[in-house]
Design goal:
Protein name: NRAMP (Natural resistance-associated macrophage protein)-like metal ion transporter
Pfam families: Nramp
Structural class: mainly alpha
Helix content: over 70%
Subcellular location: Membrane
Number of domains: 1
Number of strands: 0
Keywords: Membrane, Symport, Transmembrane, Transmembrane helix, Transport
CATH class: Mainly Alpha
CATH topology: Amino acid/polyamine transporter I
Shape: globular
Strand content: under 5%
Order of helices and strands: HHHHHHHHHHHHHHHHHHHH
Radius of gyration: 22 Å
Organism: Bradyrhizobium algeriense
CATH architecture: Up-down Bundle
Number of helices: 20
Distance between the termini: 55 Å
Length: 449
């Protein structure tokens, strides 16, 4: 926004005041350009797109392969729930000028803050390791070579880009990487889909009382409504205020709040709708190409890509594998960045990707440490690839206390001032939290029945 304002002011400053052209002449409307539309979107788009990381792709592929079209209804259910909780997260960041951890450090106890920071750091780091392993396997599937080399290449590249690339340029790169998700819409075209069954699976929930079924539900909820997404979007809203000198936290500068909330809502809804559309494409592709043919033992996203070759053709396999790499390059910075924001804001260090490395050394050290441990997991007997599915389950369980904390925070006047969350958004946030609680409880009961 600031960049656009500067360019406009510069244009007017350089415009000649004399000559034949009247000063009041209206400019012709600019033609639609996709680049401009993409530029207008913010943290919501990147957050939604990063939700479909290799871990998520593995989870959706497993769900479609094991349960078929009948699991598609979860995408219809999760859309309003994830949109609500992400909008609340974004509002907290925009109103207060701090991310979630920054607000916890100011208004809650130290033990609660430390618990949130440690759990998020662990969950994100494991997720990074799993995603790097999946990206390496997908690249090996495409061009051969050694997986460990690709783990190092992708991991180091992501860290270096976050630390040394200009913030605005880096955000632009992340936005363009969201286009890699369209690979899964393309892959869907190669699957012989029974659209009647697929539509029934989306609109008519089919429940099965079993541990496997509810574990899959928790995994899906955990990979669509993930704690790191809350932290990232809230912190990015706060970050934008540090980058744009015209912005102040809304608790300090009330003017323009309605416009800002409208922007946040539109950005979040578009990002979450995009995320769920892609997730649904993956589920339907796996159901049509794998479940129908009896291939239900998919363990990772790379296995899903490989399994598509004999059923949907080599091109479908290539498209699926390329999507894994592209989404991983988008998700790893968000995972590492969310961990760094949480720890840095909790400790009240200088934080932000817009800062130079020497201005936020501790923040960047946490970011590099999280990514570094994620890389190292691929060199240990712990196989991060086999942890893809379970990392989503862990995120689902971890999301419960974080969501409760977020909802309580959004209602406190000493946090949100006059902008406490009310009305439909507030109750939809609690509905999202309740859905996550019920799914986790159902999974736990299933283990003992």
């Amino acid at each position: 926004m600031a960049e656009r304002n500067k360019s406009n002011s510069k244009h007017h400053a350089n415009k000649p005041t004399g000559g034949d052209e009247p000063a009041t002449k209206a400019k012709p409307p600019r033609p639609f350009r996709f680049r401009d539309a993409l530029k207008a979107l913010g943290p919501g788009l990147i957050t939604g797109a990063s939700d479909d990381d290799p871990s998520g792709i593995g989870t959706y592929s497993q769900a479609g392969a094991q349960l078929g079209y009948g699991i598609g209804w979860t995408m219809l259910l999760t859309f309003p729930l994830m949109a609500a909780i992400q909008e609340i997260s974004a509002r907290v960041g925009r109103v207060t000028g701090h991310g979630i951890a920054g607000n916890v450090s100011r208004h809650y106890s130290l033990w609660l803050l430390n618990g949130v920071m440690v759990l998020l750091f662990i969950a994100n780091t494991i997720n990074i390791g799993a995603d790097l392993g999946a990206m390496a396997d997908a690249t090996k599937l495409l061009i051969g070579g050694h997986s460990i080399f690709y783990v190092l290449l992708f991991g180091v590249t992501s860290v270096v880009a976050q630390i040394f690339l200009d913030y605005k340029r880096y955000v632009a790169v992340l936005k363009w990487l969201t286009l890699s998700l369209f690979a899964y819409v393309a892959a869907l075209a190669f699957a012989k889909v029974s659209w009647g069954e697929a539509l029934a699976g989306i609109l008519l929930p089919q429940l099965t009382w079993s541990t496997e079924y509810f574990t899959t539900i928790v995994a899906i909820l955990g990979t669509t409504i993930s704690p790191y997404l809350f932290f990232w979007q809230a912190s990015q809203e706060a970050e934008d205020q540090r980058v744009d000198t015209h912005k102040r936290p809304l608790v300090e500068k009330h003017y323009g709040a309605r416009r800002e909330f409208s922007r946040i809502r539109a950005d979040t809804i578009i990002g979450m709708a995009f995320s769920n559309l892609i997730a649904l494409s993956i589920i339907v592709t796996a159901a049509a190409a794998l479940h129908v043919s009896g291939k239900t033992d998919i363990q990772t996203s790379a296995e899903a890509a490989e399994a598509l070759r004999p059923i949907a053709g080599a091109f479908a396999e290539v498209i699926f594998a390329l999507g894994i790499v592209g989404t991983g390059l988008l998700a790893i910075p968000v995972l590492a960045g969310a961990a760094a924001y949480a720890v840095g804001e909790g400790r009240r260090w200088p934080v932000g990707l817009a800062r130079k490395p020497k201005e936020a050394a501790a923040f960047y050290a946490v970011l590099a440490l999280s990514a570094g441990i994620g890389i190292a997991l691929n060199f240990t007997p712990i196989n991060p690839i086999s942890a893809l599915y379970w990392s989503a389950v862990v995120n689902g369980v971890l999301a419960v206390p974080v969501m409760v904390l977020l909802m309580l925070m959004a209602r406190r006047r000493d946090v949100m001032g006059r902008f406490v969350i009310r009305g439909r958004l507030y109750w939809l946030g609690w509905l999202s939290t309740s859905a996550m609680v019920l799914s986790v409880v159902a999974m736990g009961v299933g283990f003992f029945v």
